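Archive entry. Fields below.
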Amino acid sequence: MRGARKGTKLMNEVSESGQFLEVSECLTGFSRVELLAAGMAGAYESQLRKVYGDEVVSRLLREVSGVVKDSGGDEAKLEELMLARVFNDETVICAPAKNLAQMWYLGTLIDYTDPTPFVVFKRTTVVSAEAYQQSLVLGDVGAHPAGAKQPGFGSWALGPRPGPPSSQPAPTSKKERT
Amino acid sequence: MTQQRYDVVIVGAGQAGSILAKVISGAGRRVLLLEAGLEAGTDLDAGAAYRTYVGGYLDTFYNASAKVPNSPYPNLPNAQSPNVLNLGAFDRSKPPVLDDEWPPAQDANLRLTSGYFVQKGQEPFGSDYQRAPGGTMLHWLGTTPRMLPNDFRLYTTYGQGVDWPITYDELKPYYEMAEREIGVSGNVAEQNIPGTDAETYGHDYGFPMRKLPQSYLDNQLAAGVRGKSVSLDGTDYELYLVPTPQGRNSTPDARYKYKDSEPRWDSRAGRLVFQKADHPYTPVGSVWDPYTGQRCEGNASCVPICPVQAKYNALKTLKSAFHNLAEHGGTGSITVIAQAVASKIEYDSEGRVERIRYRRYSKPGEPDFEEGVAEGELYVLAAHSVENAKLLLISDACPGNPNVGRHLMDHTTMLAWGLMPEWSGSYRGPGSTSNFPIFRDGPFRSRHAAWISPVDNWGWNWPTLAPDADVINALNAVGGERLFGRRLRAYLRDRIPRQVNLHFECEQLPDWGNRVTVNPRFRDQLGIPRPVVTYDMTQYTVDAFYAARQVARQLFAAAGVEDFSTYNEDNPKSWSHGAGHLAGTHRMGTSPNNSVVDRRQRTWAHENLYLAGCGNMPTIGTSNPTLTMSALAFWAAENILQDLAARRREVNV
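PREDICTED_STRUCTURE:
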């Protein structure tokens, strides 16, 4: 049934992207709300799937979710497990994990299969103009992406904005998700 | 087809060309403007200008992985621009070729042939420019210091370089015209610069707009160094910052004496004079909407592109030129032929230029072109210092003059970067809002180069490609442990807003060996020879780097800045970054033996050929050259109008 299939697909997308956001939180240190506010979750998930294929991406999502679960909310343990099971150059999910974090921070990703010497911009692709404008790195330090989200005349003379979210690291969600 | 004949034919619709076209057409003359870049960029109607600039350039910028100065603008196979990204291919393992010519067998041994420039010298020439309507002004930073009185008499005062054939005082009225045209924001009273006094700008002079607010970083740094000094060669220098005059919109200053008037040709006086005006100065907005860009909005992307055009660019001058013609009527006109690459100057046996040939392409990517001919009474090359030299050399213009293409200069820029002790709000505001002027002039100039030291508001973007590099290196465990998640975020939050970078933009002297040549074996897609660059730095520059490092270390220590600068100790010349301030390739002087143009900016060899742009500058001092080049363009326009008037009188007699 056409309608039913559509319904199922939609359900899957929601559930996948729920996991996608959970994994993104862990990789970036940004909260789900901050990530949702950037409005790029869907675009980054499809970009990742386009580059690495569904199988690798699903494995990445499973593995990170598993690590979050296994760490039981223990920060040190999470760090240790992530380095061993995800950010480990031996595994195929390392490159997509780095790129997923990089997309959120910079709106770009790197071609890790390119053997030319590593230069920051040389093997880099900007996901889209929107991705660049929604990149999180500079907004998180009280600035903004160069050429976008301009804060207004004289804003650069002002001191730091007080209070959260810019003064504290975002907490990692300890809630388990299935 | 009858060829139309113009009063003045100008090659290049960049800064100098736009000013010349505006002033000369405003005096009732018919101007032809040849532009190598795309026709779309010359359409300044609101809708078209918006589509080209915001829909085109800005979007390209967002999508560029390396946001270098040329990145937003079309890189045209038919009118290529040099790109700093090509420097990676400069091959030091091959020997420099320092003689003027080289045998074909050595072609493969040239140090750089990819991109637009061919480079064969000791050091890579690290600056770019943009061939597009509006020119390199599209990606200038917008810094507008005047040159200092001693810069015009460097040889007489310090025994270095050469003197200019004109003095600061002679150029001063034209500086005022340039500051009006560009729309400079700044505070004259705070320009406490060595080698200047209250007369330098003049007691009654102020800029059209008030100074841009100095950045929080500037103020943190100023507070850190207050009352402290640095020592160099036994002399103590007090540390202080001054706000930098800038060509970007700020709050209009009601005290501005010229109000909303513009310099126009006064035929009775025979010179340019500001008209009487009653209305106060109004900032000039974007070319697509006068209410956009009325103030700098803090996009922090002046280089390579100001999204709202609060930063001045040459298109504003071109637009106002058309506006004036429509408003005031009269006989003046500007005809623009775009996608027309000048290919040859032709002159008769007496040296009189008869025509300029150009190759006009109809499609940006395709090499097909039609030959065209531009004819006028007078001709001006305003195509950029390198392009002007290239065109002169291709045409064997100024025959026998060995100065053509020589004395290529830039500000050799050493960087010093570190971390401020506290959050300093880096990556906000215009690229630079303040500078340390301390070493812009002084007796040390007899030993090593002077420099201006702007504070960079954009963190370590220039020296390390931050913030991207910070993120990518941390994720890849480059230069430290691997970071991700909360620890990565905390690391970036701590580090990025404390990043400070100082420029030491050192004056490069005019050196005979630094030059642009052409070689018929290297041609662009239209068959026009490409520039071949030979470049090096002398001990005068290198000694300035060593001195600047001493100053940087002391300055950082005084301000509590943790120094992160790294330098290749084996080759101090590699500490230099190109500043994009290309100058000197057809300098003015006192005779054809030492120069290509006379003080009036006219070639010694061709009585009806003028040159414009930074190529005319005999030295560059420590000032970003755009303002001075713009002042010289007004001066050239005045000289051209005098010339035309004299010719007309001869005809009438």
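CURATOR_NOTE: Chain B touches chain A through 59 residues (CB under 8 Å).
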